[in-house]
Amino acid sequence: MNDTPVIGVLALQGDVREHLIALASADALARPVRRPEELAEVDGLVLPGGESTTMSKLAALFGMLDPLRERIAAGMPVYGTCAGMILLANKILDPRSGQETLGGIDMIVRRNAFGRQNESFEASVDVAGIDGGPVEGVFIRAPWVESVGAGAKVIAEHGGHIVAVRQHNALATSFHPELTGDHRLHAYFTEMVRAAG
């Protein structure tokens, strides 16, 4: 890998375009990923916000569940926002029927923990490892993390709840940084991908 990592955005559902823009601004070569052969060509992957149940069902439909699990288990850097955080959890507290996760972070998440769509909000969040002050996060039907295992590190909290976690090459936030124009978390993830390469 040269200095410009190729980072995919899982493009089955959700706010794909915003992540592609944020990654490009962080000097990554960003591309949508829908099929296993496209997944094989990227150095890292973003799992966007959207509807986690729909995303897991579409991943199964597109033959992506096992390839995603294998790449994540093998250490491919991955960053999940909102629904993406749910997909990275080893356990969901209140899964919908048929909802599957990819795993990757030893954490238990609660879906829609911050309330329904009309209770969405924006907040400043201090994230460990991100310089330049708090990150603006948009919380839309956001999950929170109930608990983490020994391998996972809490890097941000909001209102007494865990909203950002990192474990090795896996990063997850409850909120959407890609909707604010503040691309520091994408730059941080791009550095994770470079370091892993």
Q: Strand content of the residues, in percent?
A: 25-35%
How confident overall, as mean pLDDT? 94
- Computed over alpha carbons, the radius of gyration is 15 Å
Oligomer: single chain
**What's the total number of strands?**
12
Low-pLDDT sequence parts: none
Helix content: 25-40%
| Cross-sheet strand order for the largest sheet | 2-1-3-4-12-11-10
The dominant shape is: globular
Number of helices: 6
Distance between the termini: 6 Å
What's the story with the biggest beta sheet? 7 strands, mixed
One letter per element, helices H and strands E, the order comes to EHEHEHHEHEEEEEEEEH
Protein structure class:
alpha/beta
Features:
alpha/beta; 3-stranded mixed sheet; globular
Quick recap:
With 197 residues, the chain is an alpha/beta fold. The protein contains six helices and twelve strands.
Overview of this structure, please?
The protein has 197 residues and is α/β, with parallel strands linked by helices. The chain has helices at residues 16-25, 36-39, 52-61, 65-73, 83-88, 184-196, and strands at 6-10, 29-33, 44-47, 78-81, 89-92, 105-110, 121-125, 135-139, 144-148, 153-158, 161-167, 170-173. A seven-stranded mixed beta sheet has the order 2-1-3-4-12-11-10. Strands 5-6-9 form a three-stranded mixed beta sheet. Strands 7-8 form a two-stranded antiparallel sheet. Strand 11 (161-167) and strand 12 (170-173) form a beta hairpin. The relative contact order is 0.19.
Give the arrangement of secondary structure elements:
Blueprint: E1 6-10, H1 16-25, E2 29-33, H2 36-39, E3 44-47, H3 52-61, H4 65-73, E4 78-81, H5 83-88, E5 89-92, E6 105-110, E7 121-125, E8 135-139, E9 144-148, E10 153-158, E11 161-167, E12 170-173, H6 184-196
Parallel strand pairs: 1-2, 1-3, 3-4, 4-12, 5-6
Antiparallel strand pairs: 6-9, 7-8, 10-11, 11-12
